[in-house]
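PROTEIN SPECIFICATION:
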Amino acid sequence: MVKVNGTMKVAMNHTWIYNQSWEDPRVDIEHFKIGKGDRICMLTTGGDNVIDYLLEDPEYIDTYDMNEHQNYLVDMKLACVKELEYDECFSILGEQNYELFLTVYPRLRKHLLPRSVQWWDCNQHRMRNWHISGSVKFAAYAAIGCLELLGCGDMLREFQNMKNPTIEEQRLIYAKYRPSVQRAARLGQAGMNGLIGFVGVPMRQFTLYENKHMLLPELLDFICQDTLLFSDNYFYASYLLGKWTKDCCPRYLKPEFFPLAKARADRVRIITAMLSEGIQSNDARKNYTRFVLLDHQDWLTEEQIVSSWRALCKVGDPKGALVGWRSFGTLPFGCLSHLKFHVNGTIGRKTVNEYTDRVGMYNGLFCAELPKLSEAPLLLQEPNWGTQSLLSSLTTFARMTVAPVTTLLSKNHEAFLDSFYERQASDYDAYRAGMLHGKRSLMWAVPWVTKPKRVLLFGGGTADVLEYIRDLVPDMEEVVILDLCKPLLKQAELRAKKYGWNNVTIVQGDATEYQTNKKFDVVISSYVFTMIPDWKKAINKAWDLVADDGYLAATDFTIDLADQSRASSFMWRKTFSFDHVELNAKHHQMISGLGKPCAFRIEQGGFPFIPLLRCPYYYAVQRKC
């Protein structure tokens, strides 16, 4: 299931989030190669792109949304297109003529789905001001109010009074007001965390962009300097004007395109369901040539992305299909990094490029070939940690708490590790599953479908991560488990015997001094670099052991320079230092500079018996190519 925050849950129970689509169909059609005869599976949101795609003459469009209100809205837009003449339709959808809507509503009902009829019969008032409606209206009102408060309203009125200024004229006007606009942007940025739920952005998505704290300043510069705000950029014009004009509106509301949209409107099928679940139903079609996922994958874990792609593979055209999506991040997700990409690019906002759209909200644009199911991202196994009683967990917690004191007399790092883990090793996996959250995300992010032959666990400990790929291990040539700590390696040895893995080699020693002529297709470092004093040498050694076209996969605790307070940073640094663990953002910064990035994310996780407190951790996958 997709996790949404409380604000979004409340909104979805009562209304739509988006009153219009927030993905630019002009860019979609070009880069996702949407054209004549395509069989399209997509997400609804505001529904305008659903109707826009009809102009490309697809065979049909199936549009899914788990928020039923989004589907009620597109159903109404389609009903207007089907039933009304152009002037009537534009008056309602473009100029929000509410009185006309009430007059023609009885004619529109016959085109609506049964559930839509029930809802619209009681909610016709939603069309009174639908251009600023849905939960996104709260963010829109806040943004407009902020601009007016700081003296930017005059700029907007000056734009409008010029009657479709050129981009050069618009830039000159903006230059006069830019200091005020940027002050408004910074003020809005300060309240961003409270508003993102209203615009359908879960916090998980918001954290994907490293420079997110400059989003609004960058965005306002972009839309005022690089888009024609009132003659082309209908995404923002509708909020600023409270309407669309015939020059600034979606294509299907232009007189030259409206007849085509009307003639093809019956080609759309509306389904209320999460896409990955809906396409597995009995009445789902099985031969889509295009999938348009919008930014949906930003909401998902790597594990959920794997499951959803395997579902797509079962309903795609056997002759070939393309999958297009956007992201708030700039990477296509680790589990998808092996795909054949037609588009894998950064959307230009500060510097306009071929992927720049009129919205300016997203940072990555991707289009990849849908693989055969045998080449799709692999489902991993649920780890078998065994069970740990409450008493056993409390005992492990107590031992961890007092270990820093009992290990003070350790002669060296190896002796410290042996002493620290000696009485914890047997319960290591079950207990630390509740605190080492990055292991699961990391293992799902590795493209295991590439069938690596040699795998190295760099600082492998108990080899707990092999639980996720225990069905793949027997087919590998060799798995090497390298660690300095003897008690943890004893558990790794027991695991190998348990599963009968005769291809597993256990090496006890300092990872930074490991000598071998072998190179590995995947090198995994799980909560290791923070525990190695010479972490730079360790990272370089791990990278040196990666074979050409192989992967380094790493996860560990860290400091989040963007979102973590100084007090929190100091507290976690100090706390972990008692266990000889050094939290340092330079670790993942160094890793991210190696090879080609496939996945990177910073998240937060809690600890057993320590309520409320959450520490940042990262996971990263880098490809050597």
About this structure: Residues 71 and 578 are 55 Å apart (CA to CA). The chain has a mean pLDDT of 91. The longest strand covers residues 610-623.
